[in-house]
Design a protein that fits this description.
It comes from Ostreibacterium oceani. One of its GO terms (biological process) is fatty acid metabolic process. May play a role in fatty acid biosynthesis and insulin sensitivity. Belongs to the enoyl-CoA hydratase/isomerase family. The protein has two domains: 194 residues, 2-enoyl-CoA Hydratase, Chain A, domain 1 (Alpha-Beta Complex); 47 residues, Orthogonal Bundle (Lyase 2-enoyl-coa Hydratase, Chain  A, domain 2), CATH 1.10.12.10. 50% of the residues lie in helices and 16% in strands. The protein is globular. The protein starts with 5 loop residues before the first strand and ends in a 9-residue tail after the last helix.
Length: 258
């Protein structure tokens, strides 16, 4: 359904979720977030999908929350429900077994910038620009601050949050908000190449590693090493680890289906 506001396209173990509301700059309305959440919940249970790409049609990756919707209601309960819905969607990306890559070819502001920061990896073209611009409208971007503060240095994150100013894709690369900066003509090809590289690895090891990575960030150093050691020991006691090591020692390509 090409008229759907969130499209899903699956091919070769890669699922592309495409924001398809270009006339609204792909704003994250409640409806858009509900559809994204539904797709994420479905993908989490789909063992045929190994990587997810989130991208968008139009000039904007996402302009963040739909401000008309935000101002539609005055009551605090409505706003709490809306922002909690967004936070739960972001957590779902973090907790998804499959890695999620943001492909950005336009502006990503406020919750749209948060979405980029919250994805496991991010690739952008020179046409991409990033901002957490809520402060320009009297609203400090508190929920985007959670993701930004976990990706950027404190000073870079706070400068973006306090000024609301845009940074270009090169600055985003320098700040650590994105992994790669590539030409618009090769953006999708580059993103797919990363996804295919990940998809070629054993899914169980990827899922275990992603969960471990985020969990250990919350621990002190000795606890993190203890947890990582336990995780590696569990990982070693799996068929895919035994097959991978045997293949390396025998100088052959591993057969992950064994």
């Amino acid at each position: 359904m090409q008229d759907a506001i969130v499209l899903r396209h699956d091919q070769h173990a890669i699922s592309q979720l495409i924001l398809n509301r270009p006339e609204k700059f792909n704003a994250l309305s409640s409806e858009v977030m509900t559809l994204l959440q539904n797709h994420l919940d479905s993908i989490a249970q789909d063992k045929t999908i190994k990587v997810v790409i989130i991208k968008a049609h139009g000039k904007a990756f996402s302009a963040g929350h739909d401000l008309k919707e935000v101002r539609h209601r005055e009551d605090k309960a409505f706003h709490e429900a809306l922002f909690n819905q967004c936070s739960q969607m972001m957590l779902s990306i973090n907790q998804l077994p499959q890695p999620v890559i943001a492909e950005v070819n336009g502006i990503a502001t406020a919750a749209g910038c948060q979405l980029v920061a919250n994805c496991d990896l991010a690739v952008a073209s020179p046409q991409a620009k990033f901002a957490v611009s809520g402060i320009n409208f009297g609203l400090f971007c508190s929920t985007p601050a959670v993701a930004l503060s976990r990706n950027l240095s404190q000073k870079h994150a706070l400068k973006m949050l306090l000024t609301g100013e845009f940074i270009d894709a090169q600055q985003a690369l320098n700040y650590g908000l994105i992994n790669d900066l590539v030409d618009e003509s090769t953006l999708s090809q580059h993103t797919l190449a990363i996804a295919e590289s990940i998809a070629a690895k054993p899914a169980a090891a990827i899922a275990l590693g992603k969960a471990m990575f985020y969990k250990q960030l919350k621990m002190d150093l000795p606890t993190a090493y203890q947890y990582a050691s336990e995780t590696m020991a569990c990982n070693m006691d799996t068929d895919h680890a035994r097959e991978g090591i045997d293949a390396f020692l025998q100088k052959r390509t591993p057969n992950w289906s064994k």
